[in-house]
Design goal:
Helix content: 55-70%
CATH architecture of the largest domain: Up-down Bundle
Strand content: 5-15%
Order of helices and strands: EEEHEEHHEHHHHH
Number of strands: 6
Distance between the termini: 9 Å
Strand order of the largest sheet: 1-2-4-3
CATH topology of the largest domain: Four Helix Bundle (Hemerythrin (Met), subunit A)
Largest sheet: 4 strands, mixed
Shape: elongated
């Protein structure tokens, strides 16, 4: 589900802003964006997100830190590494025939030659502030997901109700299919042969075969059952996305069979409407865990 959460915590020396953005995705994908020096928090953030109960979606967590100048650590130059980079670059210039030697600007662009000595105690204290902002953002994020989930459930219920109504209409049309075929077949036979040569028993045999071949009673019963089960699962809540996908697949199969067996223009039109509703539900189910 798509959602957004924001949390902000400020102290005398720090200001932390955490944003959580979620978009639809079939699997769980958590991406963290935070200052490189605090990359060790990455796994902690992932665990907190996972413990919230989210099972599906692409989640982006953005951590922004503002520290007062006196609290910002001074970067330390790794002179040995910088010297090695310089020698490698100088050798590269020689090999490719450049007259220039490496410049200071070339070395400054190499981030690895600088290190920040962060005090462990201060890092942990800062993490406590980040964690507070993260939990605040997560609360608003989950609230938004809950609202969207309720809207999704409402939309799916309405579509399932419509499918149930269409099934009832198909059940009303179904008995007339065989009768229509009987009249149409009798008329065509009498156009080809005299009435006194009309073979009633052969005629009834053909009608019986057609009736058996076009019978959709079982498919209608199973389709109604799938809709009912879908409604029950929707009310249960929890992790239901995979169950819904399976039921939609089965419901779609029954609807397709009804369309292929019914031999009725009226029923075919109702089948098209049902398939349209199923596809719309399928799109919504992709957003449900």
């Amino acid at each position: 589900m798509t959602a957004y959460g924001r949390g902000e915590v400020s102290t005398d020396t720090e200001r932390v802003l955490v944003e959580i953005r979620g978009v639809n995705h079939r699997f769980m994908d958590i991406q963290c964006r935070l200052p490189r020096v605090y990359s060790s928090w990455n796994e902690r953030i992932r665990k907190i997100i996972q413990s919230s109960g989210i099972r599906r979606g692409r989640i982006e967590v953005i951590v922004q830190l503002e520290e007062s100048p006196e609290k910002i650590d001074r970067p330390l130059l790794n002179e040995a590494l910088a010297r090695n980079y310089y020698l490698v670059l100088k050798e590269l210039c020689f090999k490719i025939g450049l007259d220039d030697s490496p410049r200071l600007s070339d070395l400054i662009s190499i981030k690895d030659i600088f290190e920040v000595a962060e005090e462990e105690d201060r890092t942990e204290k800062l993490w406590e502030i980040v964690e507070e902002a993260l939990n605040e953002a997560l609360d608003t994020f989950m609230d938004m997901r809950k609202v969207e989930g309720e809207n999704l459930a409402k939309d799916i219920r309405e579509r399932l109700t419509k499918i149930s109504s269409l099934i009832e209409q198909v059940k009303e049309y179904a008995p007339s299919v065989v009768e229509h075929y009987r009249e149409k077949l009798r008329k065509r036979i009498l156009e080809l042969v005299p009435e006194d040569k009309f073979d009633e028993s052969r005629f009834l045999q053909e009608v019986t075969i057609f009736a058996d071949r076009s019978d959709i009673t079982e498919e209608l019963v199973r389709a109604e059952s799938h809709v009912s089960q879908f409604m029950e699962i929707l009310e249960q809540g929890g992790t239901i996305g995979k169950k819904m996908e399976f039921l939609l697949q089965e419901l779609s199969r029954e609807i397709n069979t009804i369309g292929s067996k019914a031999n009725s223009v009226d029923i075919a039109g109702l089948v098209v409407e049902m398939k349209n509703e199923v596809e719309k539900i399928r799109e919504q189910v992709q957003n449900i865990e």
